[in-house]
Write a structure and sequence with these properties.
homodimer, mainly alpha, two-stranded antiparallel ribbon, 6 helices, 2 strands, 3% strand, DNA-binding
Chain lengths: 137, 137
Amino acid sequence: MYTIKEVAEKMDVSEHTLRFWAKSGFFPFVKRDQNNIRQFSEDDLAWVKIVKCLRSVGTENKAIKRYIDLCIIGDSTIPERYGIIQATKLKAEEQMKELQKQLDLLDYKEKFYQNLIKNNLKDSWNPMNNIQLEKAL
Amino acid sequence: MYTIKEVAEKMDVSEHTLRFWAKSGFFPFVKRDQNNIRQFSEDDLAWVKIVKCLRSVGTENKAIKRYIDLCIIGDSTIPERYGIIQATKLKAEEQMKELQKQLDLLDYKEKFYQNLIKNNLKDSWNPMNNIQLEKAL
DNA sequence: TTTGGTGCTTAGAGTTACTCTCAAGTTTGA
DNA sequence: TCAAACTTGAGAGTAACTCTAAGCACCAAA
């Protein structure tokens, strides 16, 4: 059993966010002790994990709540949940491609500046000159 | 020369966002025609591209403005700009790893549901049963 | 026994980066 | 000439946190 603080550290999510998510109904099975303190089980950590996963690929909280609710309803919702996971995976793969593109651009920029520094900033008297160079790619 | 609508389509950024970015000072060289309509040049598109890149890896707008301002100042700021690009690239690489982790989890989940569907939902009488399975990974 | 640390709640303010609506002005095709 | 299609800036609205604060409970050390 873990306190909210321990979960925050373990899962790298802030306590504030965990409480916010809890209030949003993302952790329907977290128990409380006699002092009303949340006691996260290993099972609950798995819920945190999937919520974190869905959030990190841009799933809206409303849609996450929908997925959680489907899980609670039970096996009749398995096809819909499968669809959600498939769509989310596709979205994540798109993001992967997009991120790779941006990494390529950053890599180009990095080399561009390296070259500028290596050649000791000749032709550097005019700000616009630099901006012209900036436009590259 | 492109209107804001054309830029929006070409660069896949909404007109609203482009105006918001313009107001934030991200496109300091966009000219206007006699009716005050923005006229984006090819150079301006390059600025849109780098702004989009920085945003997509989570750079805050304040930091983007700083980078733009450094570009305008000129060559004396090249070392700082180089540092920013390097740091941004590192951050993007981290995000790549993180996204891959989440993709792995989604892939596991997908196979998990496929298996559930293939085996025709036996043992499915109890909602909790399903939740137990959900916790996997 | 008091003090410090941790945790709970509710409520509400603040933040970031959009996102959308709207009124007003301009241009253009039927 | 007039309606459709664009553009503009101002400003309201939204999502998802993020933080503060008040007020209370519990426990362990000094």
